[in-house]
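Re: the multi-chain job from yesterday

Posting the exact lines I submitted so nobody has to dig through the queue logs.
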Amino acid sequence: MNNSTIGAMVSMSALQQRMDLIAENIANLNTAGYKSKDGSFEDALTRVQGQSREYHQPGRSTPLGYNLGFGIRVPSVTIDWSEGSLMETGGPTDLALQGNGLFGVQVNGGTAYTRLGAFHYEPDPEPIEPGGGAQMRLVDNMRNPVLDTAGEIVRVPVGTIAAIDETGQMWMKTSETGEATPGQRLMIVQPLSKESLKAVDGGFFVLAEGVTEQQAFVEPGTDNYRQVGVRTGWLEQSNVDLNKEMTDLIQIQRTFQLAARALSSSDQMAGLANGLRSG
Amino acid sequence: MIRGLYTAAAGMVTSQRRHDTATQNIANMNTSGYKQVQSVSHSFPEVLVHAMDGKGQAAKALGKMSTGVFAEESFSLYLQGDVIESGKPLDFALSTDLRLQDPATGGNMVFDGAGKHVAEDGTVTYQPQAFFTVRDAEGNDLYTRNGSFNVSADGRVLSAAGFQVLDAAGNPLTLDRPVDNIEVDGAGNLIDPATGQTFASLGITYVNNPEELIRDGNGVFHAGDPEAAGIRLVGAADNFQVRQGFLENSNVDATQVTVDLNAAFRAYEANQRVVQFYDSTLQKAVNEIGRV
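And the result, structure tokens for all chains:
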């Protein structure tokens, strides 16, 4: 195979990967809490063909060697962490985060992080301790328990009126007129570097391998910590920008077309070489 | 006569190289910071041709001819690419228009559309360019125009291909705070918006003659001869700007490369025809001359 064929083939598979990402983003246009994914291109491995000293002719402006490229690749997929627009739902347990923060949720026994705050209460399946009353626990829309700052499941006794304030603190009253008492505070972590998180399905993020919580998150109260606001009754929508995705799609598709054209052109050249001795 | 056969074969090989280059440019139409490659062909050195008449006389010179063509160099076109907004805090675009003093006039050198200046005595000068400085695992300094960076879990700033981004002092750039808490000014200084203090600067390299750089792939270049390339850090007097939240697009001209692709293909075809004509001439010589 000649260089053009390889280059065009490698490029077409990279362009296909990029188109898959666009398809994923467009599919999640209405997924609350979804963060759009982006992939940038890099030119793949370039081989510099050696040239001997005689190639250094007068008028040459570049060092010896002739560059041969082998198409492009998508080196990494990045997540766009910009905030999605907020939509009012009015639900007292629909929470939207403003600022660099993530809720902590217990998924399959481990801790996962999410921007999606579509929570609700459900009866706590844990056996009630002797002397204790029935309890409700706060769960997300996949029934994973929501965690508090200490990593415990957020629970409220049955029959109380509970509300969550802008800092994620829970307040409880036993009657409309009663005094509100503080309950648990929701876990809201602030990642130092987004690369310490890995996206898993369900809109969750988990710590990347080998990264500890101390390394990944900013300690509240330190200089680098920025206040994160919790808005009750709102949900963060997907941050996919359809205009951007469609523009990207057009560009990628046209490039794909041209690469396919280059491929068929180099194929015809191979045909010409084959036909050298047909006349 | 056979001489022409090899000339046409050399033409086919060269057209193939030009086709490869056009394919590479097409592939990189969406690669941030990519600089278009141009293939420059050169004719074989000319040889003096003599007539041979077989009568023992001194050979008579017929004249000069060159016997072929080869792809001599791949030339990078360092024109500014379009700067487009990406909105990410660690995406940077460099827009540069670096100036050189023209010794003939004392004013600024005027560069043409390809970033070249030809003086009256024929001296060619290329426009200087600025690059982000990155380092590979072996510790080699590399230069790139692709400013799509990210932060590793341990706070190191890496390029998209995983090279370590360097600061102005030539040390690996590391961040001790979330990327949302960083502002970058036009000179590449990283500023804490809360205090207004500069805590680091991006290492931006000035390359006096960018044509001395060698392309490595992955969007990076290295200097084979740093002295000849004229590498130094940018200074305050240099006309460049860093834009945070923007990326520099590829500077490939889609129309131009499509034309290049077709031209290379047709040149290949024409050379193939010439080879075929020689073949049929040879066939006549072998099979028909001397037939009784």
